[in-house]
Recover the amino acids of this structure.
């Protein structure tokens, strides 16, 4: 078995690809901490024996695991939708865990009612209930009140993540609630936007940030290039705008900036500190 962050799996997959090495002894691979790009999943899967999958479980410190999906379903069914801006599919809820999607709000919700659950296809905040859910934050009643919803004798945890269910009962992750960019034309969800631009061959990853006051934020897509990329910024931005015009939610995005190396959570090298990127993006070139 192998459990690793997306950044480690990326290095492993590319090493194996460059050196024609395989991993015949592995029977199961899991990666969590941040969305795992489908092209990296495909690279790693090509090093594994037939029938061995890369699993990408979804959860949080307060509730883990919540849902999971394997590489066979990702590569055959959901990756193309991610590239079209549908978000990242994190699979079906695991046994013993209930998942609902409720309307986005920054206010506490004291009591859970089924009427709070949004219909299939609508984006909202992901909430979970089950034996894996923590009951409170230590010595932080304000945080507990914002994150927990009472439902005697159990409770629900608000993940702080945006998502939706599809018709097949799969959960899709759209980005963090706190990272949503509130433009004058409506909200933009980070993962749904970035999925459109990440497939560019010269791009390692992108990060959407907003500049200005909420409700009239200007969206900026920060870009980290692949090592050794030689494309000039003007050509890159023209090509990214072309990708964006193919989808309703990204067709009007105009502002792009290349960042030398995204600030990330040192534990995973995948969780992007978008607050720091927003400050950087707002400084003059």
């Amino acid at each position: 078995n192998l459990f690793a962050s997306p950044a480690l799996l990326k290095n492993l997959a590319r090493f194996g690809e460059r050196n024609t090495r395989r991993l015949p002894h592995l029977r199961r691979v899991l990666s969590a901490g941040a969305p795992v790009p489908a092209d990296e999943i495909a690279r790693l899967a090509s090093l594994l024996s037939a029938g061995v999958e890369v699993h990408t479980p979804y959860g949080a410190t307060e509730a883990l695991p919540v849902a999971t999906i394997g590489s066979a379903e990702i590569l055959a069914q959901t990756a193309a939708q991610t590239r079209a801006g549908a978000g990242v599919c994190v699979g079906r809820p695991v046994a013993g865990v209930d998942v609902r999607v409720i309307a986005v709000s920054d206010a506490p919700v004291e009591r859970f009612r089924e009427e709070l659950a949004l219909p299939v296809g609508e984006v909202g905040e992901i909430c979970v209930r089950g034996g894996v859910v923590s009951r409170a934050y230590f010595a932080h009643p304000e945080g507990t009140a914002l994150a927990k919803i009472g439902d005697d004798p159990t409770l629900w945890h608000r993940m702080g993540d945006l998502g939706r269910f599809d018709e097949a009962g799969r959960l899709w992750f759209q980005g963090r609630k706190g990272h949503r960019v509130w433009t004058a034309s409506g909200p933009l969800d980070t993962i749904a936007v970035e999925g459109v631009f990440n497939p560019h061959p010269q791009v390692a990853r992108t990060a959407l940030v907003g500049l200005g006051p909420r409700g009239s934020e200007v969206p900026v897509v920060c870009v980290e290039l692949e090592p050794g990329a030689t494309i000039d910024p003007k050509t890159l931005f023209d090509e990214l705008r072309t990708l964006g015009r193919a989808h309703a939610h990204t067709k009007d995005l105009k502002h792009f900036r290349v960042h030398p190396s995204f600030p990330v959570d040192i534990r995973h090298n995948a969780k992007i500190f978008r607050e720091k990127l927003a400050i950087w993006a707002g400084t003059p070139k």
